[in-house]
Amino acid sequence: MSRKPFYADLADLPEDERIAVIGKQAEGGAKVSFIVEDDAKADRYLSKLLTQFKVVVTERGAGPVQGTVYVKVGPA
Hints:
Blueprint: H1 15-27, E1 32-36, H2 39-52, E2 55-62, E3 69-75
Antiparallel strand pairs: 1-3, 2-3
Helix pairs in contact: 1-2
């Protein structure tokens, strides 16, 4: 059974809480995409995600708005 796509705007949460939501969902089996402002922020998120959760990066590329980066993570 596949999961129904879900969207959540996490912008109002502190960064570490956003990362925890992403990591818990991905570790639990979801494929989770997030968009950040630049490569440095994507690298920072990934550093935290990969050390705190059992997840892998499945995609990374230019985001939908110029200057943004999207990353997709899933269960390891």
